[in-house]
TrEMBL record:
The keyword Nucleotide-binding does not apply. It comes from the Eukaryota. Residues 1-30 have a biased composition (Acidic residues). It comes from Prolemur simus (Greater bamboo lemur). Residues 1-37 are annotated as: Disordered. The gene is LRRC23. This is Leucine rich repeat containing 23.
Length: 216
């Protein structure tokens, strides 16, 4: 069985993958933002290394024609990482957690075309832009410094978490490309309106409008 067949049939179990409770209340977010504004020290560059990969890799699965195997899950949380370029060569990864680092660039993940699940919370990202990932179904970029919603065009993406960022306007969420998105989390941003949210499969929308203070 090919990688593509495995991915086509896969239905991720969020209860198993997301062991932590991602729902932080407004008070927590205000503390987080205040801490970020007060702390201006530049972080020393910390590159993802092969040793870190060995420690963080798990879940051995078949790849290709079923005759080879590779680890498909990676967790490298809280490593003070600023660079994950090494991931470009780990093309079989399906689940990646790079939360609580100091990342400003996720572009190496664009090479992981088998990626199903991504968690990049608590970094220093200003954008969630990635090349189109054909199998990505769950993505979380909560508690970063993201200012827009451009560059998110993954056709099988079902759940997108952007809470606790600095988004004022929703732009670039193309309903012709985001045909599977059913859950969108935007609380803890600085939204001025709901313009730009026009998604055919959307069932769960969580947001706050800055002026009105209302929650959907």
């Amino acid at each position: 069985m090919s990688d593509e067949d495995d991915l086509d049939d896969f239905e991720p179990d969020q209860d198993d993958l997301e062991k932590e409770d991602d729902e932080k209340d407004t008070e927590d977010w205000e503390d987080y933002r205040k801490e970020g504004e007060e702390y201006s020290e530049e972080w020393m560059p910390t590159l993802l290394t092969e040793d870190m990969m060995k420690e963080g890799l798990s879940l051995l699965c078949k790849t290709g024609n079923g005759l080879a195997h590779a680890y498909v899950k990676l967790e490298v949380k809280e490593r003070d990482l600023t660079d994950i370029s090494l991931l470009r060569s780990y093309i079989h990864l399906r689940y990646v957690d790079v939360s609580e680092n100091h990342l400003t660039d996720l572009s190496p993940l664009s090479h992981l075309t088998h990626l199903l699940w991504l968690k990049a919370d608590g970094n220093r990202l200003r954008s969630a832009r990635l090349n189109e990932l054909p199998y990505l179904q769950i993505a979380s970029f909560a508690y970063n410094q993201i200012t827009d919603t451009e560059g998110i065009s993954h056709p099988r993406l079902g759940s997108l978490d952007l809470k606790g960022n600095r988004i004022h306007l929703v732009t670039g969420l193309d309903p012709q490309k985001l045909i599977s998105l059913h859950t969108l989390e935007l609380r803890g941003n600085q939204l001025e309106s709901t313009l730009g949210i026009n998604l055919p499969k959307l069932k769960n929308l969580y947001l706050e409008i800055k002026d009105a203070g209302s929650r959907a």
